[in-house]
Amino acid sequence: MKILVTGASRGIGLAICKELHNQGHQIIGLCRNINEKVLDVWHRDVSCNSELYSVDISNEREVQQFIEKVLEPKGYPDALINNAGITNDSFFHKMEWKQWSDVIDINLKSLFLITQPIYKQMIKNKFGRIINISSINGQKGQAGQTNYSAAKAGVHGFTMALAQEGARSNITVNTLSPGYTETDMIKHINPELLNTIRNSIPVKRFALPEEIAKAVNFLVNESSGYITGANVPVNGGLFIN
Q: Please, what CATH class does the domain formed by 2-234 belong to?
């Protein structure tokens, strides 16, 4: 299976690429910036035979160029993992418009831009797997993250609606909502607060990126074709709904 993964250069995205490659899939990775260090890590952890492209998926022109120059001549993916995401935290009364719009653009606007052309091809192929990476904070909300929480809640709304449309074409659409995970994103949290968060998780630890990747692999599998419109939580019991 050919699989496209956004936010592929590090953290959860890189772990997803590695896991899916190890399962025998062909990987197309997208990330905003590529440098020598990123390429070294990609080639070490994924494969020099996989493809990594620099694309700002919140930019309509860049996405269209990628579609025209890469996917149209080389072939569209069978599965899409919408993983790219950013945070830009602030209490709402202090939040600037750019903090709001940047997070909405990367986390939510990009779903339309990258998914629609791929989804159209999936309809023609009568098969597809779309997995959207949301967050525990899209389920429960988080103070200081009105922008991020709104975007990630929107991700699952997108999933539920598109799942109903895609089902007739054998296209499943699901959300995966990780809890706190050992990535660069949590390194910016105050260590004392981080310890408090860890102690509040029933399993008393953060997720490993590889654990999120394993859950993605389960949903990508052709045998998971009866699961669609679901929101799969991987949060150690921190939020149970």
A: alpha beta
